[in-house]
Amino acid sequence: MVAVDHLSKWFGGIHAVRDVTLQIKRGTITGLIGPNGAGKTTLFNIIAGHYTPTSGTVWLDGEDVTGLAPHELFGRGLLRTFQLAQEFHSLSVRENLMMVPAEQPGENLLNAWFRPGRVAARDAAIARRADEVLDFLTLSHLATERAGNLSGGQKKLLELGRTMMVDAKIVFLDEVGAGVNRTLLNTIADVIQRLHRDEGYTFCVIEHDMDFIARLCDPVIVMAEGAHLAEGTAAEILANEAVIEAYLGTGSKHARPKSAPAAGGEA
């Protein structure tokens, strides 16, 4: 579904992404892990159009989309969330969802003046969809709450809800568990699994919680020092000597961790 071919990104003298070639297959929940500075978020930003690669190609459904702007990729069904939630904090939770669909008739002043019925009908349809999404997320009781008042985990759920307001094909989740308590993290995992199973979503997930990755993701891709290091099931990755060395600086077969250590900070 999404493929990157010999992708590289330089920031001055820093080679943040090094000749990465990989695929994210349709219908998967793909995990992307790696230690600090591995280039994971930079790779996300290139795929989602926030950065232009120094070299290489990004493909979406067989079409070259390298260098397209985020809003253009959004229109093609490629969405991403951020480690820090990007809510409109002064708007209600429902209003945050209603802001998502593009080209609403009410955005045109002439429609607002001369076609108020059309505007009202579209707004009502979007509001109904927003309420359906809130029910799916079990956030209906917070529909009128200011989004800025939500907890970190609730804001992450709201970001997932935004992807449900449009025709999403693939969603890139950047540290969806960052700053989220275990109960809400389990809720987020349940929502991701339901969207994958019931709505046909494809996901790619950056996360340092290996229990979360093992529960959701197959395959798991590992990056280190900007390069593609390994790929396999979560069990295969946790037993991979090169991965252990990338995280711990040692390849000792006698000191395997039960799970990879957290890779907090800049990805």
UniProtKB/TrEMBL annotation:
Residue ranges annotated for the ABC transporter domain, each copy included: 2-250
Similarity section: Belongs to the ABC transporter superfamily.
Keyword set includes Transport: yes
The organism of origin for this protein: Acuticoccus mangrovi
SMART domains: AAA (SM00382)
GO cellular component term of the entry, any: plasma membrane
Protein name: ABC transporter ATP-binding protein
GO MF term list: ATP binding; ATP hydrolysis activity
UniProt keyword list: ATP-binding, Nucleotide-binding, Transport
Pfam family, one: BCA_ABC_TP_C
